[in-house]
Amino acid sequence: MNNPADNAPVQKAGATEESRTSLTALLTDLSFWADWASVVGLVGLVIVFGIAQPIFLSVANLQALLLAAAILVVLATGQTFVVATSGIDLSLAAAVMLGAIVLGLVHAAGWGIFLACVLAVAATSAVGLLNGVLITVGKIPDFVVTLGTLSAITGLGLILSGGEPTMVGSPFLLKLTSGSFGPFGYPVWVAAGVVLAAHVALFHTRFGVHLLATGGQAESAHSLGIRTNRIKIAAYTISGFCAGIASLLLVARIGSAEPLINTSLLLNSVAAVVLGGVSLFGGRASILGPAIGALMLTALVNGLTLLSVSAFYQPLAVGAIVVLAALIMRYQR
C-alpha cells in the first residue's frame, strides 16, 4: 500500500515546475508587457534612480516630479481618446500654445482671469472640433489634417502675439501653481480630476462603448447604428479641451504666455499613450496606463537630470523606450 507521504515530494516538484512554467509564459507574453509596460518601467526607473541618486526619492523631488508631470498627464489623457479611434492629434502642442496666447491677450486686455481661462479652453476645444470635422466630413486623413492645423495654429499664434511673450500676473494662477491640498499641489489634483473624469467617460458611459467600437471597426460600428463621425468629432474636441487645461497649467507654471511651440509635449503625449498600452490601431484603450506612462517619462527626464546626463541624450532615451513599446504592441496585435 502506497504511503501518501511518499507522493508529497513528487507533487511538490510538479507544482514547482508548473509555477516556473507559468512564470516563464507570463514573462514571454507580449500582452503582459504591452499592458504593464508603463508600470514596470516606472518601478524600474524609481529603483535605478533611487539607488544611483538618493535625492531622487526625496519628498521634495517627488512632489516636483508630480507637478512637472501634471501637464503631460492631461495631454496624454486627451490624446488617448483620439488614438482609441485609431487616429492621432499632431496639433496638441500648437493648441496649447494658442490657449496660452489667448489667455495672455484676454487677461492683458483687462477682461479678468476667469474669462481669459474660459476663452483659452474654448479656443483649444474649437481647434479639436475643427480637426474632427475636417477628418470626418472632409474625408481627409487625420495625419494630414492635424499636421496642417499644427502649422496653421502656430502661425495664428505668432500673428496674435506678434511673436512676443505676454506676462500674466494673476493671483489665481499663482495660487494654482504654488498652492497645495494635502501633500500634492493643485496641478496634480487637476490632472487627477481629468484622469478620473476621462476614465468614467470611457468605461462607464455609452459614449465610451461607442468610441471603442468606432476605433475597433468603424464600418461595423456604423452598421450597428453608432454615429461614428460624431464620435470621432467628440474625441478630437476632448483632445482640444485637454490642451486648453494644459495651457492653463503651463501659463500658471511659467507666469507668461509664450508664443513658442513645445514639440516635446506632442511627442511625449503620444509616447505616454503607447507606453500606457493603448492600441495605435484603435479599439483598445486605458486611461490610467497613459497617466502612468506620463509619470514614467517625467521620471526618466528628472532622473537623468539629477545624474547630470546631458539634455541631448534625454530625447534619445525617450525615443528608444517608445519604439520598444510600439514594437511590443505591434507583435501583440
Automatic annotation (TrEMBL):
One Pfam family matching this protein: BPD_transp_2
Residues passing through the membrane, by range: 36-56, 62-83, 113-136, 143-163, 183-203, 233-254, 260-280, 287-306, 312-331
Recorded topology in the membrane: Multi-pass membrane protein
Protein name (record): ABC transporter permease
Keywords: Cell membrane, Membrane, Transmembrane, Transmembrane helix
A single cellular component GO annotation: plasma membrane
Coiled-coil segments: none
Entry's localization field: Cell membrane
Organism of this sequence: Kumtagia ephedrae
GO function terms (MF aspect): transmembrane transporter activity
Alphabetized CDD domains for the sequence: TM_PBP1_transp_AraH_like
Keyword Transit peptide included in the entry's annotation: no
Main localisation: membrane
